[in-house]
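Hey, weird one. I pasted the Peptidoglycan/xylan/chitin deacetylase, PgdA/CDA1 family sequence into the form twice and got a warning about non-standard characters only the second time. First submission, copied straight from the form history:
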Amino acid sequence: MPARRLAGMAGGPPPAVTARLRRYGALAGAGVLAVVCSGVGLPPPSDAGPSSDDPRWRPLAAEVASPVNGAFRGVAQRVQAPDIARSLQAYAQELQRAEARRGAAAKDWKLRRAPLRAPAPPEKKPKLTTEPGHIVGEGLPPVIVQVPTDEKVIFLTVDDGEEKDPALLRMLRSLDIPMSGFLSDEVARADYGYFREAQREGFAMHNHAINHRQMNTLDEAAQRAEICGQQDNMERELGHRPKLFRPPYGAYDEATLRAAADCGIEVVPLWASEAFPDRIEYGRADKKFHPGDIVLTHFRGEAEWDAAMTDMVRRLVDAATDQGFAIARLEDYL
C-alpha cells in the first residue's frame, strides 16, 4: 500500500473507505453494540457464511478493524467495504440470536437470570506460581487454587466421574458454560463413552488418579503408578495424556508432585470453593468469589445429594452471576 495511504490510516480509514462504508450502510446501533461488547472479537465464519479458508476473513480479522479501540489498522485491497459491512452485520445478528437462545435456556433451567458471558481468553497465558502454604521445589508442578487474572471469572471443575448425567451436558451446552473434568478410572471406567461425548462437546478431561486414594499415604512408586497409570487410561479412552492432575481429596506431598512431573503433569489445580446443590462452601472468610477462583464439585446425583447435578450448576451460576462473575474455561488460562 502506498505510504500516503498508510499515513491516512492513523486517525481512521481514508475518506474513500469511509464514503463506501456509508454508501453500503453502517451497522445498526444494536449490531455494533453486540460486536463491541461481546468480548469475542471480530467474526469467525458462520455456518451460512464463507468457509474458514475464504481469504476475506483473514484481513477482516487481522488487518481491517479492531473492535476494542475502533481503529482501522489497514485495509487489504481485496476486502471491499460492502463485504466488511455485511460480515459484521451478519455476525452481530448471530450474536444477538445466540444471546436470545441463552436467555431462553436460562429460563428453561430456572436460573434467576442468564449467566454472564466470559471475556475473551488472554492472548498470553499467565505465569503460574505455587499458592502460598503449598509445597514448592525445582522441577515440581505449581499447586494453585486460583488463576492469576484481574477478570471477574471463576472456573468450574468436576471430580471423579461417578455420576454420568446427560442432563448436565445438555444444561452446560445450552447455557454455553465450560467445565473441566478430573477423572478417576475407578468410577469413570463404567462408561468412558459419556466422557468422550463431553470431550467432543468441548469439555476438557484431566487426571484424578486411578483409584481415588489419598496420595500422601502412598509411597512414591505407588503414587507414580496411580498417576501414570491414569495417564495411560486417559490416552487409551480419550486420546490424550492430560497436563493437569488433581490429587484425590486435595491430599498430596512432595513425592506426589515428583511423581506427577514424571508422568508429564504440568499443573496441580486444587480449589478455592466447593459447589453443592444447596450451598457454596467458600474457602475465604469473606464468603465470596475472587477473580480466577477454581471451584470444585463432583459427579454426583440423587443417591448422595438428594438432588441432581443440574441443581448444583443452578446454584453455582446464580451465585456467580449475583456477584458479577462469569464462568470461563480453565484451559484457556492454564
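That's the output from the first submission. The warning seems to come from a hidden character in my clipboard, not from the data itself. The chain has two domains: 3-108, 143-332.
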